[in-house]
Amino acid sequence: MHQLAHMLSAMGIKRGDTVAVMDYDSHRYLECYFAIPMIGAVLHTINIRLAPEQILYTIDHAEDNFILAHTDFIPLLEQIKGRLDIEGFILLSDDETLPQTSLHVKGEYENLLAQQPTFFDFPDFDENTRATTFYTTGTTGLPKGVYFTHRQLVLHTLGVLATLGSAPKQGSFHQNDVYMPITPMFHVHAWGLPYVATMLGVKQVYPGRYIPDLLLELIDKEHVTFSHCVPTIMHMLFNSSKINEVSLRGWKVIIGGAALPKAMCQEALKRGIDMFTGYGMSETCPILSLAQLTPAMLELDDEAQSEIRIKTGRAMGLVEMHVVDEQMQPLPHDGKSTGEIVVRAPWLTGGYFKDQKNSELLWAGGYLHTGDVAHIDAKGYVKITDRVKDIIKVGGEWVSSLELEDILHQHASVKEVAVIGIGDEKWGERPLALVVLDPQKPSSEKELLLHAKEFIKKGIMAREGMLLKIVFVPTIEKTSVGKINKRALRALYM
Ligand code: AMP
């Protein structure tokens, strides 16, 4: 970190500049998480899964001065270099030899670092200085830049540590853990947990590109005990050929970014994994709530425990979270009344970078609008039932696409599922499920509808859910961060 600060300063990087990183999850990225903001510059974590034109847009919009790029991204950068206003590049490499490039390269990261002194006298400055920035996608329009200050990052780190570190048994993160993120470091600082892990002083394992077999090998070899990922990645791990060769007993995993399917949680519990939900978004640094269990809840059987673990969780300390109606009035904590989640906390983004209009919409009425629809129960457990834009309105009644997905997921033949609303003359809208079947376990639309009907009989699903239509598909389109891309699916099927 000290050597990196020296190297950047020697390159002419100064306070207020923006330094971008394009890398897989690595120790170098962790060094950048600290050194770049600590010299007073802004760290821009580039989403390496975006299309070249979108990457170019974010580099321009963030006003990047310098880019630290893994050699794998040289072809992409060469494609857009004529339109890039950048002072230079530093290459990050996993090999000894560097590829030829026409980019204006100042050198290789480790070589440059090795020449630097090992102590840097970091300057003192206002804690409200911008420290990081990155771009959200998935919603309509161009990517939007969010940003976080030093103060926000520190308070988020302390808030998360207080919640995870004080857990008596389940869902804890402590000094004996070994940490490995499986959410990309370009996306909301890998949920802020590298900062928490560094503060705890634990061993950290950075896995590079996500290759399921390799991830499982690392968990086994390095004795990883604490991770976090989106359901899509966990699905890949559970389907890996190596899954039965390693013991995952005692591994603690926060699942977030999308609802944790009950079937996935049950499979995890069977394997001895402590799996539970975390919730947040790019705009919120990100963590807002965690579905930790009290010691009494841990006495429950797996079925009852998984019902709690798949909830969106309880707000962390310092997070003020409400479920409100359209007039912004808080709804009762009855586990039924459904409205939008709005929040305040000391670590939420001040707005979108250079975008006054959307910033005002985000913060309308003094609370950050998440766009997530949920209910909250008497114990304070929140349960997201949909995104505002994904809600399906059947004959005037709301049907939760997430609940329908969860129900279909519980059928053994269903490998992946996405539910969207499609136009219907009689009902206005009706739910359409796109289902990827497990090739080993064939099924039919009739069988899946009967399965869903069981949940309606038990009162778990509204009767309107019966208007479900099922289409079998080979794959389901995902966004750049591995979430189901409902916008693209709606465009295809509506
Ligand atoms: P992003 O900004 O890309 O991280 O996406 C944030 C969005 O992901 C949230 O607004 C939610 O819609 C969704 N999300 C995140 N965590 C959860 C969760 N635990 N359950 C359901 N949806 C989630």
Output the keywords:
single chain; 494 residues; alpha/beta; Rossmann fold; GMP Synthetase, Chain A, domain 3; 3 domains; 7-stranded mixed β-sheet; 5-stranded mixed β-sheet; 29% helix; binds adenosine monophosphate
Structural summary, described in words:
Helix content is 29%, strand content 24%. It has 494 residues and is an alpha/beta fold. It folds into three domains: 124 residues, Rossmann fold, CATH 3.40.50; 240 residues, ANL, N-terminal domain (Rossmann fold), CATH 3.40.50.12780; 104 residues, ANL, C-terminal domain (GMP Synthetase, Chain A, domain 3, 2-Layer Sandwich), CATH 3.30.300.30. The strands form six sheets. Strands 5-4-3-1-2-6-7 form a seven-stranded mixed beta sheet, sandwiched between helices. α6 packs across α8. The radius of gyration is 23 Å and the shape is globular. Adenosine monophosphate binds next to β12, β17 and β18.
Q: Give the low-confidence spans.
A: none
Q: Strand tally, please? A: 23
Portion of residues in beta strands equals 15-25%
CATH topology of the largest domain: Rossmann fold
Average pLDDT metric? 94
**Radius of gyration, Cα only, in angstroms?**
23 Å
Please sum up the structure shown.
The protein is 29% helix and 24% strand.
Q: Mind sketching the topology for me?
A:
Blueprint: H1 2-10, E1 18-22, H2 27-38, E2 42-45, H3 52-62, E3 66-70, H4 74-80, E4 88-92, E5 105-108, H5 109-114, E6 130-136, E7 144-149, H6 150-165, E8 178-179, H7 188-191, H8 193-200, E9 203-204, H9 212-221, E10 226-229, H10 231-238, E11 252-255, H11 262-270, E12 274-280, E13 287-290, H12 302-309, E14 314-315, E15 320-324, E16 339-344, H13 356-362, E17 368-376, E18 382-387, E19 392-394, E20 397-399, H14 401-409, E21 414-424, E22 428-437, H15 445-457, E23 469-472, H16 486-493
Parallel strand pairs: 1-2, 1-3, 2-6, 3-4, 4-5, 8-9, 10-11, 11-12, 22-23
Antiparallel strand pairs: 6-7, 12-13, 13-14, 15-16, 16-17, 17-18, 19-20, 21-22
Helix pairs in contact: 1-2, 6-8, 11-12
Adenosine monophosphate binds next to strand 12, strand 17 and strand 18.
